[in-house]
Design goal:
The complex is a heterotrimer of chains A (96), B (416) and C (1010).
Chain A: E1 3-6, E2 10-13, E3 18-22, H1 36-44, E4 52-58, E5 66-72, E6 78-83
Antiparallel strand pairs in A: 1-2, 3-4, 4-5, 5-6
Chain B: H1 6-14, E1 35-38, H2 42-55, E2 60-63, E3 79-80, H3 87-100, H4 103-107, E4 118-122, H5 125-140, E5 146-148, H6 150-156, E6 172-176, E7 180-181, H7 184-197, E8 201-203, E9 208-214, E10 217-223, E11 226-229, E12 232-235, H8 241-247, E13 255-264, E14 274-277, E15 282-286, E16 292-298, H9 310-323, E17 331-342, E18 349-352, E19 358-362, H10 368-385, H11 399-402
Helix pairs in contact in B: 2-7, 2-10, 3-10
Chain C: E1 18-27, E2 30-36, H1 40-46, E3 53-54, E4 61-62, E5 75-78, E6 85-89, E7 100-103, H2 117-120, H3 138-152, E8 167-179, H4 183-194, E9 199-202, E10 218-219, E11 222-223, H5 224-237, E12 241-244, E13 247-253, E14 257-263, E15 279-291, E16 295-297, E17 310-312, H6 313-321, E18 330-335, H7 341-349, E19 353-359, H8 367-374, E20 379-380, E21 383-389, E22 396-403, E23 408-417, E24 420-424, E25 427-429, H9 432-436, E26 440-444, E27 449-454, E28 459-461, H10 471-488, E29 503-504, E30 531-533, E31 538-539, H11 540-548, H12 554-561, H13 574-585, H14 589-592, E32 604-605, H15 606-610, H16 627-632, E33 636-640, E34 643-648, H17 656-669, E35 672-675, E36 680-685, H18 689-696, E37 709-715, E38 721-731, E39 734-739, H19 744-758, E40 765-768, E41 773-779, H20 783-790, E42 806-811, E43 814-819, E44 828-834, H21 838-849, E45 855-856, H22 859-868, E46 917-924, E47 936-937, E48 951-959, E49 964-972, E50 981-985, E51 990-996
Parallel strand pairs in C: 1-7, 8-9, 8-15, 9-12, 15-28, 17-24, 18-19, 18-24, 19-20, 35-45
Antiparallel strand pairs in C: 1-2, 3-4, 5-6, 5-7, 10-11, 10-29, 13-14, 14-15, 16-25, 21-22, 22-23, 26-27, 30-31, 33-34, 35-41, 36-39, 36-40, 37-38, 38-39, 41-44, 42-43, 43-44, 46-49, 46-51, 47-48, 48-49, 50-51
Helix pairs in contact in C: 4-5, 4-10, 6-7, 7-8, 11-12, 11-13, 17-22, 20-21
Classes of the chains: A mainly beta (96), B alpha/beta (416), C alpha+beta (1010).
């Protein structure tokens, strides 16, 4: 069981969190203006990155706040967490 | 190909088994092939086998970055069944099941397909309704299916606990008698041997690092063992479908998750069939070696580490012990993880792509093993004819644009 | 005192057994005696029992090879009845009085096993033979061959009764976790503890000490055992230290999370309780981990190296020194290293004759070999055991000089009589836990073993696990790593420099790897077998065969030969197998691969993993405030999510059909009561609450009046319905949403997700209030009359209190909100009171209605009544593939709103198809026949398979109001098929049906006002 850093509550075990998939996929402002292909891209297409991935988590059994995380999907290591609406921090992996 | 039989075993025993040939060659990659299959798992090797056998296409290569069958083929719980709800899925899996039934003979390789019957348990009224719906649909689709009341469940699997005072009691089950389990490694090896004998080059330790295109036509692949050209490239890389797709500039509706499984120590035969319960997450059979083979759950997060979380396994053990009280003192001997590629509708992709000559086969989720022969068969058809077979036509990429999904998790509560 | 007759191999003195505590036990029914402190294995050896098991494939006689969890052979069935445990290793069972054990997988007995005939035909059973035969047809495979294979497979037997034991889980944090209580682990724990850090020390054995329990060593001027006792005493006294003996750390997971099983009792047949569980699963989160897991000795791979009486040199040493047992009378030691000579010396000192030491190396010049020579033991270097005499017990060996770089034998063989062979092929560090974390390992050529190189977690290691096989090294590293770990965890050892722990031991000298020992005939040609994986009968010849056939990757080889797939998971065999493969494919070991170890280190019982999450604790059971009443009335319950909901309330002699018919009639004719408390309730407040609902639901919400209620459908972005319910506007900026019972948590998540991630600009706050309110529906023509009797401050007249509005007031003495909502089509009030008033409300209503025969009804009746009205149930009429339009509910999909969740998807090619499945009603031609739910509907039941299906029956009931059966169905293009005659092919009949409107009664809605 991993430890996840909730930006609001601090370190908590993985069991308290739920997962929200890839981050920074904003719901389109005007869905009606999108083609079917563009809408399908929003609905279904994901980067599914092997390696450093920006993704959403929610502290479900805690503060219930959504936040973003930078995580390595191979090692499962959390490199950073940041709040909704913020941009991902620059990470110098060499120091990590 | 030297045929395997009891006679060949006896003959080779006389020469101390020193004259058995390689089951497949280890060739150097050629500069060009008619077609390249990326991925040496069960699906990729089956695709190569049927390309050669059904379509006479033998100048082909299977490229595997590691060792044959080292991905999900060798990591799953080996359940084979075809009792899916939707017509599209039933057609695919039933086609596969029919091939399974003659596969040992076709491949001349004993893949130990054991038709012990698979029960899918129902634990509440909603389960019962959905289970019966699936039974009725299966029958009309030519898939054998029965509904069992709790007493029937007990008769088919006497060690199961059908107490109606259980927290989630067994309210019945669907049964597919023709379903069962197979020896997973042998499937990869049997297809590899069959494909190799028909001239297919199987190249291990050869990782694809790029996909070559001229305009919208695929022209080959870059690999760790050099450039290999081909006008047709099939991607069959469960666990890395997105990554290979990305090399060709494709965005795919796929997410990859850790999935775990475990086995007990071998015990004398006690569990006669396969029991699956989605409601309480129990999937268990007993292998020919005597191990209880238990499927664990999927971790919710994207993960490529072939490791899952222990609490996923732990969380299922209560339900396992409730359903099978006599398993409590048995012991987990080994656990492992794989990577499953999952599409939003829990159905696969066996499809052409916007790139000419590039085909993709993936997204089988937790159900890929059972589809192996059908997947290879229809994917080979698609590659050979540049047109899908009617069976795999619904499993196209366009469905995510039109909305014509084959939604297996919304439907039957049997996504496993 | 045991007589020498009863324990012929028991030494007169020595060992850590308690000779004052004899233990009577039986093995295969034979009464035997040992002592407290024995393992089952040591007790068997004390009784000169070497043949204790049979192998998997050939059923070869097998003895005891090891002294710990590495044992591949000596598996037994422990105990009987509900307490039995299969496949325990005799080496890991603590002996106790009354113990009963049996050999497994042999018939009729371990000494005469019919299946050993397999051995005669072993030539025909090389690795993977079963892939090459048994396949004339699928029929014969299923009917003949597989049953034979299955019958032969498996080791012990599962219990036939449920487990009587209790288990539990504990979760702890610590600063330093030390795994392994040998010298390195004790030193590490001691140093870390000095700093004040919270330390946990776990060891799989019943007592700490590790190798010090089995070796003659001096530490700090004390005997090894006394030093251990002193250190343990100090640790026990330290307040921040937790000692966990009998505890196996079996898995090492992410973020220094370790799982361990503590066996809290010394026996398995005395029962246990939740207060005193049999085993405990520890979940340990450590800041730093020190692995001090030691090493396992490796066998040498020589001809017939599996005969009973052949054991690891270190195991023999353990039996002599720790258990006071001489495992034989006349021993031969076969080794490739100096260290094993000590075993020969120890045995000799204990009175065992050592006939000869056979060393594969060109010469043996270390101190230990010298000592052996001085002790008068014959040492033959550059020599090998080439044959073993004796099938069920070693009787002697044939020795040859080696030639050609040790790859062949030369000269004439020489016979030496013996009843015990000790073997040592070097050591394999127990890197399993390190491997679990996917740490990188390196192959140490000099020591011929894999050692940890680059950790992935905060992991340190000390002693043999890192290749330091000597005691001094273990102590130095233990001290250093214990201090490093404490420092890294934020604690400073207070005593300055690292102390040096003095110790005395012989010079362990060098080792020379020899992976396969040659014999006169080439490997694989003679009848003799060179075993690598003992349990699965995988031999050196099998590994070479695998390489020959193209299984030249280590994972392929393992899978093809089953090496490493036994219950010992290859603890003794894996490195030998890897090395033999490397040789066969002519690659260096490090290039050929490594061995992958996955959790668990040793097998873990399912029961302890389940812990206490059994029975009612498997999953929380949620009940309403009125549950007692329901139970007292004998209600039948159904599971809806975690909730228990009354399904129907049978009276004496009634089945479900009779009860539901009665309940339905009561609601339609007079009045009924439903406990609706389980419906999800979400309080939604904020200035943008209306706008928020407008985006979440498919219909319009901005203009809903305060005091009014509206029904809404929620879709996902893909346009598919996922929940429904009514929402009341309590104030300008205040709403109360209801959800389905099963969907409450999902909807709450959904609302919060959109508020936080998509529309953070909206000022809206959601609170789950499901369990704040008890809700009771009073439904039926007499509903108003009944309610009036318990509510005096609300004007219930229809004109004063219209449909789809609510009023606040007092009901049955409690503040209440009364809503005019109807899921039955009847006049209906839903009364909500604070949760704790629920039962009082229910009882008051019941009493008020008794005069009219007020009838409690359950979910089944609710379903029938709503189906008669054509109302949907999410999850029954929908399955994640159904849009509002499919259900004929276009009226609830706003055309005016620019956007809401799901809207964009309604215009996709597939959602605008005309032949989508649509909700319709079905009437059977046989009005008395109730279609099964899930039945498929077809045009032509006689069409060839696969028969095209138009859709399926979603709901189906006997309708008391209609006096006939009714059904709802989703049918392709269904609305255009009204009046069509279609068919439902069933098990025993094909039922003709007609498509009708899905509203069966009161389409004008006249009844809802009473």
């Amino acid at each position: 069981m991993k430890i996840i850093q909730c930006p609001y509550c601090g370190e908590r075990p993985e069991l308290e969190f739920s997962y929200g998939g890839e981050a920074h996929i904003a719901r389109p402002e005007d869905p009606a203006a999108l083609s079917d292909e563009e809408w399908a891209d929003f609905l279904f297409m994901r980067k599914n990155t092997k390696g450093i991935y920006l993704e959403r988590w929610m502290h479900a059994a805690g503060c219930r706040r959504w936040f973003n995380a930078v995580r390595d999907t191979v090692t499962y290591e959390f490199l950073a967490v940041y709040k909704v609406g913020e941009m991902p921090p620059d990470l110098d992996r060499g120091e990590g | 190909m030297a045929r395997f039989s009891v006679f060949s075993l006896a003959r080779n025993a006389l020469s101390h088994h020193e004259n058995w040939p390689r089951q497949w060659r280890s060739p150097e990659p050629k500069a060009e092939y008619d077609a390249i299959i990326v991925g040496g798992g069960g699906h990729g090797l089956a695709t190569a086998y049927y390309l050669a056998k059904n379509h006479g296409l033998t100048n082909i290569a299977v490229l595997e970055k590691g060792w044959l069958g080292g991905g999900n083929t060798g990591r799953n719980t080996t359940i084979v069944r075809s009792n899916y709800l939707w017509d599209e899925s039933a057609a695919m899996y039933e086609h596969a099941l029919k091939l399974w039934e003659g596969l040992s003979q076709d491949l001349n390789y004993n893949i130990m397909f054991s038709q012990r019957g698979v029960m899918n348990l129902a634990h509440n009224l909603g389960d019962v309704r959905e289970s019966k719906r699936r039974v009725y649909a299966n029958r009309l689709n030519g898939v054998d299916a029965e509904w069992l009341e709790p007493q029937g469940v007990k008769a088919f699997c006497p060690i199961i606990n059908i107490s109606q005072t259980a927290r989630y009691p067994v309210m019945g089950a669907t049964l597919q008698r023709r379903a069962g389990v197979a020896r997973h490694d042998a499937v990869a090896w049997g297809y590899a041997r069959g494909a190799d004998a028909r001239g297919v080059d199987i190249i291990q330790q050869c990782e694809v690092t790029g996909i070559l295109r001229e305009g919208d036509q695929v022209t080959g692949v870059e690999t760790t063992r050099g450039t290999i050209r081909a006008k047709k490239v099939g991607l069959v890389v469960a666990g890395h479908t997105s990554q290979l797709g990305q090399m060709a500039g494709l965005r795919l509706p796929v997410e990859s998750h850790p999935l775990q499984a475990l086995v007990s120590e071998p015990i004398k035969p006690i569990h006669p069939c396969v029991v699956m319960s989605n409601a309480v997450h129990v999937y268990v059979s007993q292998s020919d070696k005597g191990e209880l083979v238990i499927g664990a759950g999927v971790d919710a997060f994207v993960g490529f580490g072939q490791r899952g979380s222990f609490h996923i396994i732990e969380g299922q053990m209560g339900a396992l012990r409730e359903l099978f009280p006599i398993f409590s003192r048995l012991r987990m001997m080994r656990s492992w993880g794989g990577i499953v590629d999952v599409c939003p509708d829990a159905s696969a992709l066996v499809s052409k792509t916007p790139v000419k000559g590039l085909y993709v086969n993936g997204g089988w989720g937790t159900g890929g093993f059972k589809a192996t022969p059908g997947s290879g068969w229809t994917f080979a058809h698609t590659i050979a004819n540049d047109e899908p077979h009617p069976i795999n036509a619904p499993f196209n990429l366009e469905r995510f644009v039109t909305g014509h999904l084959v939604d297996e998790h919304g439907a039957a509560a049997v996504a496993h | 005192m045991a007589s020498s007759q009863s324990q012929p191999n028991r030494l007169a003195t020595g060992g850590r057994i308690d000779r004052n505590q004899p233990c009577h036990f039986t093995f295969n029914g034979e009464p035997l005696e040992g002592f407290a402190g024995d393992s089952l294995a040591s007790a068997l050896l004390a009784n000169n029992k070497h043949l204790v098991a049979r192998s998997f494939k050939y059923h070869r006689p097998r003895g005891i090879m090891g002294a710990g969890v590495e044992e591949p052979n000596a598996m037994v069935q422990l105990g009987y009845g509900a307490h039995t445990i299969p496949n325990l290793k005799a080496t890991e069972i603590e002996l106790h009085d009354g113990l009963e054990a049996e050999s497994v997988n042999c018939w009729p007995s371990v000494s005469f096993d019919v299946s050993s005939i397999n051995g005669l035909f072993s030539k025909f059973f090389p690795a993977g033979f079963y892939y090459k035969t048994f396949m004339p047809s699928q029929f014969l495979w299923m009917k003949v061959f597989e049953p034979i294979i299955r019958k032969a497979a498996g080791w012990g037997k599962a219990p036939s009764e449920p487990d009587p034991d209790s288990y539990d889980h504990r979760h702890v944090h610590c600063d330093v976790m030390v795994v392994g209580g040998g010298p390195a682990g004790l030193a590490a724990a001691r140093e870390a503890a000095k700093s004040g850090a919270r330390v946990i020390l776990a060891d799989e054995q019943p007592e700490f000490g590790g190798s010090l329990l089995s070796l003659n060593r001096t530490v700090d001027g004390l005997s090894g055992a006394d030093w251990v006792a002193r250190e343990v005493q100090k640790l026990e006294a330290a307040s921040e230290v937790r000692l966990l003996p009998r505890t196996t750390v079996f898995g090492y997971y992410h973020h220094n999370y370790l799982c361990a099983v503590e066996r809290r009792h010394d026996r398995y047949d005395q029962g246990s309780s939740s207060a005193d569980p049999q085993m405990r699963l520890w979940h340990i989160r450590a800041k730093m981990v020190v692995l001090a897991t030691g090493a396992h000795e490796r066998p040498l791979v020589f001809a017939d190296n599996d005969r009973p009486g052949i054991m690891l040199a270190s195991a023999a040493q353990s039996y002599v020194n720790r258990y006071g047992v001489a495992p034989g009378r006349r021993a031969v030691l076969f080794t490739n290293n100096d260290g094993a000579y000590e075993a020969a010396l120890d045995l000799k000192a204990a009175g065992v004759e050592v006939a000869e030491i056979v060393d594969v190396r060109q010469e043996a010049t270390g101190t230990l070999p010298k000592e052996a020579l001085e002790a008068g033991i014959k040492v033959s270097s550059n020599s090998a055991i080439t044959a073993v005499k004796g099938k069920s017990r070693v009787a002697g060996v044939t020795l040859h000089k080696l030639g050609g770089n040790g790859q062949s034998v030369s000269g004439e063989g020489r016979q030496v009589a013996c009843d015990l062979i000790l073997m040592s092929g070097g050591w394999s560090p127990v890197v399993h836990l390190f491997c679990h974390t996917q740490g990188k390992m390196a192959f140490d050529e000099a020591k011929a073993c894999f050692v940890p190189a680059k950790p992935r977690e905060a992991t340190l290691w000390a002693g043999a696990v890192g290749g330091s096989f000597d005691l001094a090294g273990a102590l130095v590293e233990g001290v250093a790593q214990g201090r490093t770990a404490a420092l890294a965890a934020g604690f400073e050892p207070t005593d300055g420099d690292s102390p040096v722990i003095a110790s005395e031991e012989p010079d362990l000298g060098s080792l020379e790897a020899r992976w396969v020992v040659p014999t006169v005939e080439p490997i694989g040609r003679s009848k003799a077998k060179h075993f690598v994986d003992y349990q699965n009968d995988s031999t050196a010849a099998d590994i070479r065969l695998a390489a020959r056939e193209g299984f030249d990757n280590v994972e392929h080889m393992k899978r093809y030969t089953l090496s490493g797939f036994g219950t010992d998971q290859g603890k003794t065999g894996n490195i030998n197998a890897l090395a033999i493969l490397s040789d066969a494919v002519d690659r260096a070991i490090a290039e050929t691969g490594t061995t992958t170890f996955r959790p668990p280190y040793t097998p873990v019982p399912f029961g302890v993993m389940a812990g206490r999450e059994l029975g009612d604790w498997l999953d929380p059971k949620r009940v309403t405030a009125i549950q007692d009443w329901h139970e007292a009335q004998g209600a039948s319950f159904e599971d809806v999510g975690q909730w228990k909901r009354p399904w129907f309330f049978p009276k004496a002699g009634e089945d479900i059909h009779a009860a539901v018919a009665r309940e339905c009639a009561a609601v339609r004719d007079t009045v009924g009561l439903l406990d609706a408390s389980t419906l999800g309730k979400i309080d939604i407040q904020g200035p943008d609450a209306a706008e928020f609902l407008n985006r979440i639901y498919t219909n319009a919400w901005l203009k809903l009046k305060v005091g009014s209620i509206r029904y809404g459908l929620m879709c996902h972005e893909d346009g598919m319905i996922f929940d429904d319910g009514t929402t009341a506007r309590l104030g300008e900026n205040h709403f109360l949403m209801t959800t389905t019972t099963g969907g409450a948590a999902t909807v709450m998540d959904w609302l919060e997700e959109y508020l936080q991630t998509e529309w953070p600009d909206l000022k809206v706050y959601c609170t789950s209030v499901t369990e704040q309110w008890s809700t009771v529906a009073v439904a039926g023509p007499k509903a108003r009359t009944v309610l009036e009797r318990v509510c005096s401050d609300i004007d219930l007249a229809p004109e004063a209190f219209p449909f789809m509005t609510f009023r606040d007031g007092t009901v049955a003495g409690s503040p209440a909100r009364v809503s005019r909502i109807s899921f039955t089509g009847e006049l209906s009030y839903e009364v909500s009171v604070p949760w704790s008033h629920g039962k009082a409300l229910w009882e008051a209503l019941y009493e008020a209605g008794e005069e009219f025969g007020i009838t409690p009804y359950g979910t089944e009746t609710m379903h029938v009544l709503r189906a008669e009205k054509g109302f949907i149930i999410v999850g029954q009429e929908t399955d994640g593939t159904v849009t509002p339009q499919d259900l004929g509910m276009d009226w609830i999909v706003s055309k005016a709103k620019k956007d809401f969740i799901g809207k964009r998807s309604f215009s996709r090619a597939d959602t605008v198809r005309l032949d989508r499945k649509q909700l319709v009603g079905l009437l059977t031609e046989d009005p008395g026949f109730v279609l099964p739910e899930g039945a498929q509907i077809v045009i032509d039941p006689n069409a060839p398979t696969p028969i095209p299906m138009l859709g399926h029956v979603t709901s189906s009931y006997w309708s008391p109001a209609m006096g006939r059966s009714i059904a709802l169905a989703l049918i392709k293009g269904g609305r255009a098929r009204k009046g069509d005659r279609l068919f439902a092919p069933l098990e025993d009949r094909t039922q003709a049906v007609t498509i009708v409107d899905p509203v069966f009664i009161d389409p004008e809605g006249k009844r809802r006002d009473g």
